[in-house]
Amino acid sequence: PNVLLSTPHGIMGDVVQMHFSTVDYVIFVVLLVASAGIGLYYAFSGGRQRTTQEFLLADRSMRCLPVSLSLLATFQSAVAILGAPSEIYTHGTQYWFLGCSYFLGLLIPAHVFIPVFYRLRLSSAYQYLELRFSKSVRICGTVTFIFQMVIYMGVVLYAPALALNAVTGFDLWGAVLAMGLVCTLYTALGGLKAVIWTDVFQTIVMFAGQLAVIVVGTHQAGGIAEVWRKAQNGSRISGLDLNPDPLERHTFWTLGVGGIFLMLALYGVNQAQVQRYLSSRTEKEAIMSCYAVFPCQQIVLTLGCLMGLVMYARYGEESPLDKGYVKSNDQMVLYFVMDVLRDLPGLPGLFVACLFSGALSTISSAFNSLATVTMEDLIKPHVRPMTEARATLLSKMLGKVNNNLYIYAALSIFGMVGGPLLGLFCLGMFFPWANSTGALVGLVSGLVMAFWIGIGSFVSRMSASVPPVINATVIPDVGNMTTAVMTTLITPKPRPSGVQALYSLSYMWYSAHNSATVVVVGLLVSFLTGPWKEKELNPGTIYPVFGNLLFFLPQRYREKLCCVTPLEDNVSRLNATNQYPVSNTAFLLPL
Q1: How far apart are CA 173 and CA 188, in angstroms?
Q2: Pair 213, 351: CB distance under 8 Å
Q3: pLDDT, tens digit, 9 for 90 and up, residues 176-204
Q4: Which tens digits make up the pLDDT trace of 91-116?
């Protein structure tokens, strides 16, 4: 099918006919077939996915490189591929400073969360919540995670489907169905090992698609120096903005500091990522895979920013959106790609394959993680012991059910809940006084705060989009001459205060704000209802962060104030007693 796209260099309303060539379709189909083929390969090789440990955790046999690329691909979705260049084109390179948050955002998970999760030999991150608090906290955490992934999956599925619809006229819901079926096939048949190796393949496709557009676009713009010059002249090269105001959308502090909490929510406690850490052969390889994500994330961010600068070098201030060639910012990148690559058969197909790779990697990871938490946290603890064959079959069926149920629910749900989950895990790992009542009340408070701010911000923005009333002064007729003078009184936008200030909070602070709410409320409730002591807790569930930070205090004061037992001693004690198994698949690693 063909599509009519407007040319940015012609007269307003002038259009040219663009279409996918045969080569474009071949490249796109090869992506889908290869992804499904990897799933089939692992379905009929090795242990043939006959145990839950092989299906859900890849038999704990994965090496550093594939795990690191899979960690990168899991949240490098089509939304990011389309969104980052558009952000740079519109607002400049301030977004680039998000890369500053990657260092601590990956270092902390590597040395805090991974050791705790890996040494407890969990299958699901939410098994930790039962060990640390109670079964009710575990169930609440699991349901919250499912809700979070439902939302994200809907957005991730819709973005590339909309792109394919715009480029080829392919039916929007047909594209959604095609992606869902391919994801379901290789996830349900090949398990986590297939998901990880398809992530590796899809990551390569993502890099290739972005590089192709950047190289061709830079060449057509006259070289990288010319791209940079035009971006500077157009004030798109941003300096270091040290404005500490949390209401500012993007500054160094919102991106570099607020981004750390966003990274912790994604790479520290999200089941999709934790599952990859737990699939590693050793704890050291899990930590190294987290390290390896850092340069990869910087490359991904750089590619997105360069694409945005190349877009600006091509169009300048004459945005395709302003000219009416596209209807939204999300379509600008696709319009740019088709405009740049129109005479190069195969490359448009490569970029659309790049978009679909981002979507497939995220959706498959979501399917697998949802199947894991549903099996380990909602089914196994509440039914009679089942055989490995039956448990594995049920896990595969859950992967298929998630495709049909969660996607449609996602399209009607709006919100972000990663921050409260981060706060719940931090409350458990860093504060030995926190009890299960405090954890439950804290989680609920964090979720209420998240939805209050999220919905309030949305309503506030919608209200602000209504054109304001303009004050005008009209001078009546004077003699035979009629003069009408309209004087527009423009007043500076006042700084929001009170509740409006909360609604105006930069979205980069949402994770930090909501996780802090969980911790503060959880601790207050815990102290009011009777704080727990370290000796009363299951060994290995506390990371002695305060004991390490307050090393200069005498031992007796540190024992009163905080946890001082090293993590290794805690896990060794749990290994010796072996009295707190969390599931029939969990066991302890001798240190």
Answers
A1: 22
A2: yes
A3: 787 778 888 888 788 888 888 888 988 88
A4: 888 889 999 999 999 999 999 999 99
Burial of 139 (0-12, 13-18, 19+ CB in 10 A): middle
Q: Which residue is it, tokens 């309030």?
A: 456
Helix, strand, coil % over all residues of the chain, rounded to 5: 70, 0, 30
* Beta carbons of 126 and 142 less than 8 angstroms apart: yes
Which pair of structure tokens corresponds to residue 99?
A: 């890369």
CB 180 within 8 A of CB 408: no
Strand, coil or helix: 16: strand
Question: How far apart, in Å, are the Cα atoms of 17 and each of 318, 324, 337, 448?
Answer: 21, 17, 15, 50
Residue 493 has what DSSP assignment? P
Interval 365-382: pLDDT, tens = 777 787 777 766 666 666
Distance between CA atoms of residues 443 and 432, nearest Å:
17
Let me know if domain 23-87+120-240+270-405 sits in CATH 1.10.3720.10: no
- Burial call 437-471: b when 16+ CB within 10 Å, e when fewer: bbbbbbbebbbebbeebbebbeebeeeeeeeeeee
Question: What is the CA angle 267-273-276, rounded to 5?
Answer: 135
Query: What angle separates helix 347-373 from helix 388-410, to the nearest 10 degrees?
Result: 120
Answer left, alpha or beta for residue 479, where phi above 0 means left and psi between -120 and 50 means alpha. Answer: left
Bridge partners of 62, per DSSP, are 280
Q: Tell me the longest C-alpha to C-alpha distance in the chain.
A: 103
* Counts for the chain of helices (H) and strands (E), in that order: 24, 2
As given in the structure block, the two tokens for residue 113 are 């969360």
Burial of 172: CB neighbours in 10 Å, binned 0-12, 13-18, 19+: middle
Query: Domain ranges in the chain?
Result: 23-87+120-240+270-405
Hey, what amino acid is at 110?
A: A
Angle of the 283-315 helix axis to the 64-75 helix axis, nearest 10: 40
Model confidence pLDDT, tens digit, residues 295-335: 999 999 999 999 999 999 998 888 887 887 777 776 788 88
- Residue of 446, 452, 454, 417 lying closest to 520 (CA atoms): 446
